[in-house]
Amino acid sequence: xxENLYRFAKLSYDCGLYRDAGDYLRGYRLLTRDPEKKFLALxxxxxxxxxxxxxxxxxxxxxxxxxxxxxxxxxxKCIY
Length: 80
Fold this sequence. Notes:
By secondary structure, this protein is mainly α. The protein has helices at 2-14, 18-31, 35-51, 55-75.
């Protein structure tokens, strides 16, 4: 069922229903345990917020993305 929510959010986005898509993605991010899909849904949420011109929400989402990116870089075991 959870993956259907993600697909429905994508369909809503593709149809230009950005507010609905953002709501579905927000719910998806709260429910999913898959960090990769949560990360992708966060990017989708940011796109919806930008397209709806809700810049306060977009700023908050950007901060969430910064945190997620820092965590991903911390997980990288690169040798320099």
